[in-house]
Amino acid sequence: VEDIHRRRQPLPSMEAIYFIQPTKENVIMFLSDMSGRSPLYKKAFVFFSSPISRELVTHIKKDSTVLPRIGALREMNLEYFAIDSQGFVTDDERALEELFGDEENSRRGDACLNVMASRIATVFASLREFPLVRYRAAKSLDTMTMTTFSDLIPTKLAAGVWNCLMKYKQSIENFPQTETCDLLILDRSVDQVAPIIHEWTYDAICRDLLNMEGNKYVHEVPSKTGGPPEKKEVLLEEHDPLWLELRHAHIADASERLHEKMTSFISKNKAAQIQHSARDGGELSTKDLQKMVQALPQYSDQIDKLSLHVEIAGKINKIIRELRLRELGQLEQDLVFGDAGLKDVVKFFTTNEDVSRENKLRLLMILAAIYPEKFQGEKGQNIMKLARLQSDDITAVNNMRLLGGASDIKKSSTGAFSLKFDINKKKRAVRKDRTGEEQTWQLSRFYPMIEVHPKLVFSL
Q1: How confident is the model at residue 377 (pLDDT cuts 50, 70, 90)?
Q2: Measuring CA to CA, which of 4, 14, 163, 430 is 20 to 30 A from 417?
Q3: Does the structure show a pLDDT above 80 at 123?
Q4: How many CB atoms are located within 10 Å of the residue 342 CB?
């Protein structure tokens, strides 16, 4: 796989597949590759990631030396990355800055939304689904309040997606002509807290504490030659049945289930019992599990998966203890549910001076999302001094206001969804406890607002 914008070795006897975005720059590079007397490749099969404009198609047709060398020219509608069977991203790393940045630039913001709309629409083109597009509409507080660009983001994005879908209805064979599903468009202002707070499900905490790269986890296994341990990469994804079962479970629940699975496996296998009895009934280490694999080759895949997740859960629980994350997590959730306030954060900082820079930052960002007014003027400076944060961190905390807070006077009653709950509480809350649900595990109280919004919308 090679980048079209880099110099490549000519292979005039071979055919090439181009998978490119339908931009002017990419088309120019493609024509440069394939035109003239000495093309880079014998033939080109070109697949565009989204619909190409008529102007660019005309530009390609004008080069008479290129046309005979094109084996295929098609639109694939694949401008997204599937992260699992139920999720995808459009992979725009600068979207947050371009849409909610301090310097409002509507031209740059509109360009970002157009790209995003096109990419989202390709998902429905691939699935052959025609969604009813729902979105969080902007509502002005009064006639004197001006609607900003950020207020209109969901509306503009919804319009962009709809325009793409209208074109698909006419251009894609067998594309539905009536709505077959729902698309709900929200922006980050409906829930500033979720990406920052420590989330205690197995999947979330793995990504938070284990420095994973995507789905890749690296761990050590014994060397087959008897040398030092070797590093092995594994993918935590849906092909792993244990990951599939545990990923949305609370870490305490996941740890308990893993213990039960190991106990059950040992009780049903004599060779495993022998290995376990050698430990005098103690807890099995990762090395013990790996020895068990050697003793029970017919169960190697099962034990490999089990030992991997036992190791991961053990490592996570060790980090939680070492960083004293349970106390921090409790304070985070108390803030969100209105059971704690600024005084509790100040007390936490003064009694826990060894809290990491990252965790201080996350705690203050949660506080800023709930109490933006606390970070104005001298009061805000005093909070920052107490936390001993660096200048970049202080900027990150102050930038929370750009997303529109739960208690921002202007935003609190704008938009179709409000994040403000329990207004009679002395302390402010951006979540309320869900009725009819008992907490089985400590720190399982928090939930992202995305769990609630679809239920509210689709029940109307």
Answers
A1: confident
A2: 163
A3: yes
A4: 15
Query: Which pTM was predicted?
Result: 0.82
Instruction: Give 250's DSSP letter.
Output: B
> Could you tell me if 303 and 223 lie in one domain?
yes
Over range 306-332, report the average pLDDT: 95
- Residue 432 DSSP label: -
Among 152, 185, 218, identify where a domain stops: 185
**How far lies 307's CA from each of 220, 244, 254, 378, in Å?**
12, 16, 13, 53
- The rounded radius of gyration (Å) of the Cα atoms in the chain is 27
Cα distance between residue 351 and residue 349, in whole Å: 6
Task: Give the mean pLDDT of 5-27.
Answer: 95
How far apart are alpha carbons 433 and 420 in whole angstroms?
13
For residue 213, being part of any structural domain is answered with yes
pLDDT digits (tens, 9 = 90+) for 176-209: 999 999 999 999 888 999 999 999 999 999 999 9
Give the chain's domain count. 4
Question: Does 40 lie in the same domain as 86?
Answer: no
> Last residue of some domain: 185, 213, 239?
185
Looking at the structure, do residues 345 and 440 belong to the same domain, yes or no? yes
Shared domain check, 87 and 63 = no
Q: Judge if 312 and 385 occupy the same domain.
A: no
Q: Would you say residue 229 lies in a domain?
A: yes
In a domain, 376, yes or no: yes
Is residue 84 over pLDDT 60? yes
Q: Does 213 score more than 80 pLDDT?
A: yes
Mean pLDDT of the chain: 86
SS3 breakdown of the chain: % helix, strand, coil, rounded to 5? 50, 15, 40
3-state SS assignment for residue 72: strand
Boundaries of domain holding 61: 11-75
| Other Cβ atoms closer than 10 A to 322 | 8
- Give me the pLDDT at residue 228, please: 86
Token duo for residue 418: 């409000």
305 and 366 co-located in one domain: no
Measuring CA to CA, how many Å separate 151 from each of 114, 174, 373, 399?
A: 16, 36, 20, 16
**CA-wise closest residue to 2 among 33, 37, 25:** 33
Average pLDDT over residues 382-403: 88
For residue 106, being part of any structural domain is answered with yes
Looking up residue 62, the CATH number of its domain turns out to be 3.40.50.2060
Helices marked H in 138-184: 153-171
- CA–CA separation, 113 vs 153, rounded Å? 8
Alpha carbon of residue 448 to chain centroid: 13
Q: To 5 degrees, how large is the angle CA 169–CA 173–CA 179?
A: 40
Q: What percent of the chain has pLDDT over 90?
A: 59
